[in-house]
Amino acid sequence: MSVSGIECGRFVKCHAGAAQTMSQLPKSHPIAGQLMCRSCAAPLITTMVDLGVQPVSNAFRTRMQRTEAEMFYPLHAYVCDACWLVQLQDFGSPDLHFHGDYLYFSSFSSSWLAHAQAYASRMIARFGLKPGTQMVEIASNDGYLLQYFKKAGITCLGVDPAQNCADAALANHQIRTEVAFFGRETAERLVASGQAADMMAANNVLAHVPDINDFVAGFSILLKPEGVATFEFPHLMELVRNTQFDTIYHEHYSYLSLLALQPLFQRHGLHVFDVERLTTHGGSLRLFVSHMASRHAITPAVADLLAQETSAGLADKATYERFAEQVKAFKRSLVRMLIELKDQGLSIAAYGAPAKGNTLLNYAGIRSDIIDFTVDRNPAKQNLDLPGLGIPVLSPDAIAEHKPDIVVILPWNLSDEIMGELGHIKSWGGRFLVPIPTPRLVSPP
User: Fold this and answer.
1) Alpha-carbon distance 41 to 315, whole Å?
2) Are 58 and 103 in contact (CB under 8 A)?
């Protein structure tokens, strides 16, 4: 998928590829210059939340860059009044986020590996996958998921735009990876080479796609007539319900619900035939998708979830207006708590360097004068600074070395796992601060 082919959803008049982008949009598309929905091309008018200007969430800084200027961009989420897709104003190309040295490796979380292994076992059993069937994962990262299918003798192919992730998948798990952005072009090339898929997985990638129509069209091309694709993503309903605004960052172009995705899949000859609610990432969905003409019958779970989303107000502008006020109240609460702790003479560190943490800290204006350092298990992030914040990232050993009084858990969706790992802070009276959904202090188990 070429960069010029995935730059829709912005102020179209600003792009050299505008003629191509405009020609792909519906005839009812508004005039050039209007901010438009990346899914249905309706005008974007309604704000969900404006988080100000922020650096790119994974643009970590070296120590030598501390005296250099950083680039900041608007972090402004809109909701489409026509299809209810929540989305960001777009900027830059995907290469800004997903390049040869992508810093996120899925294998560093033991709970996520357990989730991947359980997924593989269930899919193999439910859909009768066996040696000789073709499994393709989009955004396959370091092979964290496909390794479990490969162990079952299933033919595996990863597709990922980051060369370093592809290299890790091959070195660690012998997973062959197509280094590319996924969409029509990549799907057609794979089909031409005899790699049509019996099953496809797209876990936590749909939100990362600027041209969501091109991306979904690739599934309709690569998926065999009776094939199944699954999509996992954080659920917009939980984001709104639990004030998970920190999951909004430039790398996430869209914030997803079944309500918004049904028309998108139908536009490309696909349908959602089943759905599961998951606990991952603070509350996620797993959608099961197939060709409309396939034999996969739609389960009652689909209608049930649509009813729940409607009841939760995901098709009501007032819901999003209330959310913006909840975010402002959260900021005041967190800043107040941290200042009070600091004024008591307590030392504060953090655990993790996830993108969500960078959104949270930048929005709240919490920098190195409040948080002394953070730690992360990923060596690629260590000895760098958090973007926009000047907070150094150290190895996890720094917690025992410096003995902070408070440890802020930035990847709050992994709080139980992290508190288990860091239970030793109890020995010096340390406590955890879990920020989402409301800031709270937790004593070690």
Assistant:
1) 17
2) yes
